[in-house]
Fold these 3 entries.
Entry 1:
Amino acid sequence: MLLLIAEDAEGIVAGKTQIKNRSVDVGQVVSVELSKDLNQVMIKVRMKPNVTPLLNEGSQFWVVKPQIGRGGVTGLNTLLSGAYIELQPGDSPHTRLTHPLLNTPPVAPADAPGIRYVYKQLIPAALRLVILYCIAGMK
C-alpha cells in the first residue's frame, strides 16, 4: 500500500481517483483521511503489483486537474474524467512507499538532461549563538 501525504484532498475521491504513469492506470486511491494531528490528508493507494519498481525515493506525485497558467491551459481531459494523480518515477534503487503529494507538477522530469541542485540552508554560526543565548536566557 502506497501512502501519499497532502495539504488537502481537492479532486481526490476514494475508489475513483486513478494513479497514472504515461497515461496508463497503475493504481487507485482506496482511502482519504485526515492525519491524527488533523493537519494533513493521508491518501492510501493500492498500486498494481508490477509497478513497484516505479515507487522509489526519487518518485514524485501530483494531482492533474484543469489549470490555466503562463504555459497555457492544461489538464482539460480531466473535465470529463475527473482529476487523477500522476506518478513520475525517480531513478533511485531504493523503494519508498510514503511520498508527499505535490501541489504543482515538477518543473522538469526526473530524466531530463541537466544538472540539479539541492539547496539546503545552514544557520550561520553568529545566528546559532543568538538562538542559544535566547534559549539560555529563558531558563
Note: The two ends are 46 Å apart (CA to CA).
Entry 2:
Amino acid sequence: MEEQTEVTVEEQEVEQTAILQSQSIDESEQSQVDNTNALLEQIEQQKAELRSFQVDNALKEKGLSSFKSIFDVFAKQEVTVEEQVSAIEQAVYAILMEKAYQPKEVAKQQAYEQAINDGDVKGAIGFKLGKFFGK
C-alpha cells in the first residue's frame, strides 16, 4: 500500500511539474505574441511614414506641394500615390487652362481651323481674304 501511495505521490509531482512547465510555456508564448504585436504596430507606423514621404516627394516633383492636405482625405482609401498626384495634376491643369489668358485673335483663328478640318477650302480662303482686306 505504501508503494501505491509513493507512486501516486510521484505521479502527482510529475503532473504538477508538467502543469508548471505548460504554464511557463503559455507565459513565454504570450510574451512572444505581445512582442509580435508590438513589431506589427511598428511596421504599420513605418509604412505610414514611408507613404507620407512618398507623397511629399511626388508632390515636390510635380510642383504641387501645397496640395499635401488633400492626401489626408485619400489616406483612408486604397489609392496609389501616383494616381493621387495625377488626379490633382489634372485638376490643377484644368483650373489653369480655364483661367489662362485667351486672346481674342484665337477665337477668329478657330473659325479658320474649323473650316480646314471640315474640308471647306472656300470658307478657309474666304476667312483669310476677309482678314487680309479687313472684313
Note: The radius of gyration is 38 Å.
Entry 3:
Amino acid sequence: MNLRDLLESIKLELCHLVFGIIYFVGLKSFNNYLLSNYQEDDYFKMIIENTNEVLISLLFAVIMIIIGISMIGKNLHEIKNYSLEIEDILFKMVGIVIETILIILTIVFIYNPILRGILLFISLLKVLTTA
C-alpha cells in the first residue's frame, strides 16, 4: 500500500480528527469563558444567559459522537466482512482507536460545565412539571 492509498483509506478519519481538534479548542475556550464568568455551581445561570452557544456546542458534540460511532462501525464492518491485508486491518484498528478517543474527549469536554447545566435544567423541568 502506497501513501496515496493510505490517505485515501483514512481520509474520513483525518477530516473528523481535524474537525474534532478545532471543535475541542473552541469548546475549551467556551468552557473557560463560562467558568471564569460564573460561579462553578451556577449552571442554570450559565445555560440561561448563553442558550444559543450552549445548544450549538451540545449539537456539535452529538454530531461528533454520531460520526465517531459511524466510523467505528464502518471500520469494524470492513474488517469483519472483507478480506483485507494485514496493514489495512492495522490502519482500520488505528482508526477505531482514534475515533474512540475522540468520542471520549467529546464527552469529557462537553460534560463540564455545559452538559451539567443542561442535565440540571432538565431535572428542574421534571420537578416543576410533576409537582
Note: The CA atoms of residues 51 and 102 lie 25 Å apart.
